[in-house]
Specification:
With 208 residues, the protein is an alpha/beta fold. The chain has seven helices and six strands; from the N terminus they run E-E-H-H-H-E-H-E-H-E-H-E-H. The protein has a six-stranded mixed β-sheet with strand order 2-1-3-6-4-5. Strand 4, helix 5 and strand 5 (174-178) form a beta-alpha-beta unit. The longest helix is centred in the middle third of the chain and has 17 residues, at 103-119. The protein is elongated, with a radius of gyration of 27 Å. The two termini are 14 Å apart.
Length: 208
């Protein structure tokens, strides 16, 4: 059973915490994590690119010259693909790039990402995240005290925390997310995963 130190916002050790083997101590499945990352990136694509085929380009209704006797190759329209201003042969059209990943794979990918962070000592448990006001410098000081420095970090809260979100939004490479909005991509993209203690308990309930 993985055991990690619990730190306060000043970086002091205030205790230890046992983590669930079934969530934080499994052998990471890289194939499933890769699939979830591809799924996340595919779902971000707008798919709104569009080009015109020869039937959609304006003009070109008249045959440019007669079929025979001119010495030119036969042509039926000035909007054929080989002409300047002509349509595209295989024009791209709007499409949906998203695809689904089944529930078991999603859960396995999340557990694998958590376990990978714990195994690489990039998992930090924060006793509590207490912000009385919107202050970026408070979050910056906390990250410095936790030894994160300029590394990319993901701060995980039990529920959506607007003060934490806005206070961290001006820091490059720092993101915040509640437990119900976690993604494998964000976890793997972060150098350090900072999880509030109550969020750890909630994660163990959700993925038990």
């Amino acid at each position: 059973m993985p055991n990690v130190n619990v730190l306060d916002m000043s970086g002091k050790n205030v205790g230890t915490m046992d983590l669930s083997d079934a969530i934080f101590g499994i052998e990471p499945n890289t194939a499933v994590m890769h699939k979830m990352v591809v799924n996340y990136l595919a779902n971000q694509r707008q798919g709104t690119q569009s080009a015109l085929t020869r039937s959609e380009v304006s003009g070109g209704g008249k045959k440019p010259w007669r079929q025979k006797g001119t010495g030119h190759a036969r042509q039926g329209s000035t909007r054929a693909p080989q002409w300047r201003h002509g349509g595209m042969v295989f024009a791209v059209k709007p499409r949906d790039y998203s695809f689904d990943v089944n529930k078991k794979e999603r859960r396995l990918a999340m557990k694998s990402a958590f376990s990978a962070k714990v195994a690489s000592n990039d998992f930090i448990v924060l006793d509590a995240l207490e912000l009385n006001e919107y202050k970026t410098k408070v979050v910056a000081k906390m990250l410095e005290d936790l030894g994160v420095g300029d590394k990319k970090a993901l701060i995980v809260t039990p529920v959506a925390d607007n003060k934490a979100y806005k206070s961290a939004s001006n820091l490059p490479g720092v993101k915040t997310a509640p437990v119900n909005a976690l993604s494998v991509y964000d976890m793997l993209n972060a150098d350090k995963l900072i999880v509030v203690k109550k969020a750890v308990e909630l994660i163990e309930e959700v993925y038990a």
